[in-house]
Write a structure and sequence with these properties.
Elements lengths: L3 H19 L1 H5 L6 H17 L8 H24 L5 H14 L18 H15 L15 H14 L14 H17 L4 H22 L5
Helix pairs in contact: 1-4, 3-4, 7-9
Length: 226
């Protein structure tokens, strides 16, 4: 019996094929023209995730709907690329499958090598980053973090990457008890910046770039250990 998930995806792919051929609006779309729509759908998924109750499942219907809209964009971009003879959905699925297998040696060990300890989460993350670095021929784990990310999002990714290398920014002398207190402190810092005529986004962006420069140097100096 065919996997129902595969059948449903097949129906969606067939539907997109028909829309590209018979719907004037769908037929004229390009990767670029869909950019703003993709961004909007991504934010709607994030909003649905914020609203879902993980315990009771309340909000799952809305998340399912928004994920469907996002999935449509993957199918749409795949079909556009196929129309130009560049790649298709099969190529996308094959590439991500091979990538996931390669980056999970604790699940799919290479012949002749021991399986990694699946309980050591930090080691798993470190291995993932190092494999990714080699795959993409990157000189640093910080390569590939989009420079256009909002400063706070970029800071979060940079700090996570540096922790893999065994480094972290110095902590301020704060006594925060929970997420709410942390949020209130961030909000207070934004107000402090306003009072001192400082753009908090730009200030954080500069601090992050300075930190990345420092971390890249340390990474190179200790490259044999990573």
């Amino acid at each position: 019996m065919a996997d129902k998930r595969t059948v449903s995806l097949g129906h969606l792919v067939t539907l997109m094929d028909k829309l590209r051929l018979e719907c004037p609006w769908d037929a004229k779309q390009t990767h670029t023209s869909l950019r703003s729509h993709l961004l909007e759908e991504t934010y709607e998924v994030l909003e649905a995730l914020d609203a879902i109750d993980e315990g009771t499942g309340e909000g799952s219907e809305h998340l399912r709907e928004e994920l469907g809209d996002l999935l449509l964009h993957v199918i749409f971009h795949a079909r556009i690329a196929q129309d130009h003879g560049r790649f298709d959905l099969k190529d996308i699925a094959t590439e991500i499958t091979e990538k996931l297998i390669h980056r999970h040696p604790h699940v799919f060990p290479t012949e002749g090598k021991d399986t990694e300890d699946t309980e050591d989460i930090e080691q798993m993350v470190s291995t993932w980053e190092q494999i990714k670095k080699k795959e993409k021929n990157r000189s640093s784990v910080f390569d590939g973090i989009p420079a256009a990310l909002p400063a706070l999002a970029r800071a979060s990714k940079v700090v996570r990457k540096s922790s893999i290398l065994g480094f972290s920014p110095s902590l301020p002398d704060l006594h925060l008890e929970d997420k709410e207190a942390f949020g209130e402190t961030l909000l207070g810092l934004v107000e402090w910046a306003r009072q001192h005529d400082i753009d908090p986004e730009e200030a954080l962006r500069v601090a992050v770039e300075q930190y990345v420069t420092k971390m890249r140097t340390l990474e190179q100096e200790n490259s044999s250990e990573f």
